[in-house]
C-alpha cells in the first residue's frame, strides 16, 4: 500500500516558506489543548497562527467550555516565536447530530468520523477564506486514532473548493503524539480519554471494561500454572503466551504491518500480526482475535496451521500460518497499533525477520518450516 508521506510534503512547504523569508498567517483548527500543544510548538516557528476552535461534536456544553478554557490557557502559557491568536466558532451540536444520522452505531475511525472531520474542517476552511488567511490546517492528524490520509484528502478538497492552500500534515510522525503527551504533562492540561462525541465516550467506557487484560501464567515448560496476571511483564520464573500470525494469500504473499509511531516499543518497525493470548483463550483463538483487531481480517480455525512454539525469556510464542484470500484493501487497521500494511513474498519475510532476530535461531528455523508448509 503506497501511502503519501504528508510529513515530507509539510517539510517541503516549510522549506519553501522559509526560503522566501515569509511568515504566513495560518488558521489551525484545534480539537483540544493537548492535541494542539505539539502542533503549535512545531509550527509557531514558521507561521503566525490563529487557533480556530470549532467542535460541535463535543458531548455537552460543560465539556465544551472546559476544553475551550484549557485551549486558551495553553495559548497564554506556551512560549512562541510569533504571537498566537484564538478564534472560536459557534457551539452547534445540532449540526453534528444531523450529520451523524444513520451512523450513530459505527465504530470510531469509520465513516461517521470522516464526516465529522469534514464538518469541522469545512467551517475552518470557510473561516480562513473569509478572514484572509494564507493557509489553513487542523491538529487532528496528531492523534493515532485519526486517519491522516482522510484528513488531508478532505482538507485539500475543501481548500480547492474555497480557494485557499490547505497545509497537509501527519503530526503524529516524528513522535508528535508522544510529544503532545509530554507537553500536556508539562502544562498540566486537562486530557480527556475519549475523542469528543457521546458515541466515542460510550465506546471508550466499553473498552475500559474489556481492557483489563488478564493473562494465564505458564511455567517454564509451557504448562498453565492455574494463576493469572494482569497485562504487564511476568515476574521471574513465570511466562506468558503470545501468538505470531503469518497471513498468506493464494498468490503466496504475506502480510507485514508497520507498528504505529505512537507505540512505546519499536515504533515504526515492520512486524507480523500478533499479541498476548488472553486468559481462557487457546493460542488459535488468540491468533484469530489479534488478526481481526489489528488488521480487520476475519479468520477461522480452518485457516490456521500451527507451526510450533518458541521459548523466550518470559514468554512462549506460538507461530501460526494463516491461509486466506485477501488483499491489502480488505484490511481495516487498528490505528493505535498499525501504521500501514504491505504484502511481501515469503523469502522477503524471512529476510526481514532474520535481520531482526539475529540471535533467535529457533524462531528463524520455525519460519523456514512455515514457508515450506505454505509452499513458498
Ligand atoms: S469519534 Fe471523534 S471524530 Fe469520530 S464522530 Fe466522534 S467526535 Fe467525531
Provide key terms for this protein.
alpha/beta, 11 helices, binds iron/sulfur cluster, Rossmann fold, about 40% helix, four-stranded mixed β-sheet, single chain, about 375 residues
Structural description of this entry:
With 376 residues, the protein is α/β, with parallel strands linked by helices. The protein folds into two domains: 6-207, 3-Layer(aba) Sandwich (Rossmann fold), CATH 3.40.50; 212-374, Nucleoside Triphosphate Pyrophosphohydrolase, CATH 3.90.79. The protein is built from eleven helices and 13 strands. The strands form four sheets. It has a four-stranded parallel beta sheet, sandwiched between helices. Strands 10-7-12-11 form a four-stranded mixed beta sheet, sandwiched between helices. A three-stranded antiparallel beta sheet has the order 9-8-13. Strand 1, helix 2 and strand 2 (48-53) form a beta-alpha-beta unit. The radius of gyration is 23 Å and the shape is elongated. Bound molecules: iron/sulfur cluster. Iron/sulfur cluster (SF4) binds next to helix 5 and helix 8.
Strand order of the largest sheet: 3-2-1-4
Cα distance spanning the termini: 22 Å
CATH class of the largest domain: Alpha Beta
Can you tell me the CATH topology of the largest domain? Rossmann fold
Strand content: 15-25%
Strand tally: 13
Instruction: Report the mean per-residue pLDDT as an integer.
Output: 91
**Which spans of ≥5 residues are poorly predicted at pLDDT below 50?**
none
Structural class given helices, strands, pairing? alpha/beta
- The CATH superfamily of the largest domain is identified as HUPs
User: H/E element string?
Assistant: HEHEHEHHEHHHEEEEEEHEEEHH
Helix content: 25-40%
Count structural domains: 2
* Ligands, ions, cofactors: iron/sulfur cluster
Helix segment tally: 11
Reported for the largest beta sheet, the result is: 4 strands, parallel
CA-based shape: elongated
CATH architecture level-2 label of the largest domain: 3-Layer(aba) Sandwich
Task: Work out the radius of gyration.
Answer: 23 Å
Amino acid at each position: 500500500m503506497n501511502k503519501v508521506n504528508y510529513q515530507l510534503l509539510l517539510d517541503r512547504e516549510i522549506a519553501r516558506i522559509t526560503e522566501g523569508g515569509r511568515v504566513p498567517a495560518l488558521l489551525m483548527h484545534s480539537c483540544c489543548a493537548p492535541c494542539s500543544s505539539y502542533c503549535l510548538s512545531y509550527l509557531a516557528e514558521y507561521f503566525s497562527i490563529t487557533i480556530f476552535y470549532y467542535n460541535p461534536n463535543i458531548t455537552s456544553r460543560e465539556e465544551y467550555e472546559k476544553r475551550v478554557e484549557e485551549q486558551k490557557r495553553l495559548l497564554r502559557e506556551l512560549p512562541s516565536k510569533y504571537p498566537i491568536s484564538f478564534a472560536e466558532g459557534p457551539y452547534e451540536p445540532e449540526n453534528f447530530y444531523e450529520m451523524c444520522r444513520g451512523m450513530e452505531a459505527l465504530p470510531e475511525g469509520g465513516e461517521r468520523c470522516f464526516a465529522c472531520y469534514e464538518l469541522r474542517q469545512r467551517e475552518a476552511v470557510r473561516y480562513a477564506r473569509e478572514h484572509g488567511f494564507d493557509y489553513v490546517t487542523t491538529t487532528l492528524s496528531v492523534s493515532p486514532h485519526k486517519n491522516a490520509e482522510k484528513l488531508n484528502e478532505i482538507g485539500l478538497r475543501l481548500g480547492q473548493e474555497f480557494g485557499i492552500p490547505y497545509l497537509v500534515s501527519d503530526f503524529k510522525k516524528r513522535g508528535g503524539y508522544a510529544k503532545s503527551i509530554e507537553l500536556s504533562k508539562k502544562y498540566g492540561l486537562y486530557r480527556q480519554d475519549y475523542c469528543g462525541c457521546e458515541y466515542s465516550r460510550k465506546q471508550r467506557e466499553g473498552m475500559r471494561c474489556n481492557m483489563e487484560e488478564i493473562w494465564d501464567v505458564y511455567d517454564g515448560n509451557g504448562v498453565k500454572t492455574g494463576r493469572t496476571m494482569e497485562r504487564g511483564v511476568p515476574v521471574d520464573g513465570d511466562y506468558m503466551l503470545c501468538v505470531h500470525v503469518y497471513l498468506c494469500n493464494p498468490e503466496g504473499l504475506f502480510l507485514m504491518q508497520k507498528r504505529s509511531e505512537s507505540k512505546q516499543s519499536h515504533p515504526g518497525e515492520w512486524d507480523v500480526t500478533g499479541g498476548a493470548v488472553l486468559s481462557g483463550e487457546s493460542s488459535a483463538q488468540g491468533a484469530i482475535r489479534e488478526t481481526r483487531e489489528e488488521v480487520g481480517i476475519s479468520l477461522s480455525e480452518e485457516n490456521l496451521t500451527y507451526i510450533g512454539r518458541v521459548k523466550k525469556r518470559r514468554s512462549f510464542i506460538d507461530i501460526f500460518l494463516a491461509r486466506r484470500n485477501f488483499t491489502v484493501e480488505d484490511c481495516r487497521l487498528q490505528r493505535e497499533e498499525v501504521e500501514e500494511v504491505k504484502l511481501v513474498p515469503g523469502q522477503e519475510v524471512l529476510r526481514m525477520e532474520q535481520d531482526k532476530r539475529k540471535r533467535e535461531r529457533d524462531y528463524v528455523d520455525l519460519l523456514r518450516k512455515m514457508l515450506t508448509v505454505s509452499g513458498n
